[in-house]
Design brief:
Layout: E1 29-32, E2 38-41, E3 49-51, E4 60-62, E5 72-77, E6 81-82, E7 92-94, E8 108-110, E9 113-115, E10 120-132, E11 136-146, E12 154-164, E13 170-182, E14 189-195, E15 202-204, E16 213-220
Antiparallel strand pairs: 1-2, 3-4, 5-7, 5-16, 6-15, 8-9, 9-14, 10-13, 10-15, 10-16, 11-12, 11-14
Amino acid sequence: MAITRIITPAVNDDAVTLAKMASGTDGNIISYDASGNPVAVATGNDGQVLTSAGAGAPPVFETLPVGGITEADWWRITTEFTGSAVPIGSNWERCDTANFGKIGTGVSQSSGIFSFPSTGVWQMLAQQGMYFNGSIRYARLDLETTVDNASNWVTSGSRYSFINNVSGNTYSGMNCNIIFNCSNISTHKFRMSITKESSGVTTTANSGSTQTGCMFIRLGDSV
């Protein structure tokens, strides 16, 4: 039997049709490997895109990273207290006011120590409401972080409120915010404290609106 051989130079340009190609898998794409040989790129999943794997490797289908803010949460205390609190350790609740919206899993807390659901660069925006009666009153709001699971705390941000020569109940408040690189959710945590407080300062709270509390926003990946 005579054997017919196809000599490459004898194949005209654009002469190989789809019908002449070997069967493959639906969704595969033909590429080349590091040796320059043809290779089939495996079919990806719905919504994935074809991305480069760099020199010496065929491309691959991958899921694009999620853009924008992936975590946003808001907590507050529900009961007033007078004096210092290191940390503010009780009566915390996630906001449940109408129209509140949480993004992602959200943070969690135990005795006023907050844990993060994922690593990342987080922003904490805290506020404290307060009232007092007397000639000289002051308080300091501290935002504290730890990277060794609460063995040591660092005051990452502070804000004073100071009032002089007042009579009757005087209402005030303060805000403070920090950005924290949480690279390990087991050891990196956050808390709020009221320190260096003069006698008679009451921190205000409410279960229907946030007077003292903190907002948590994940800005991006850890650095």
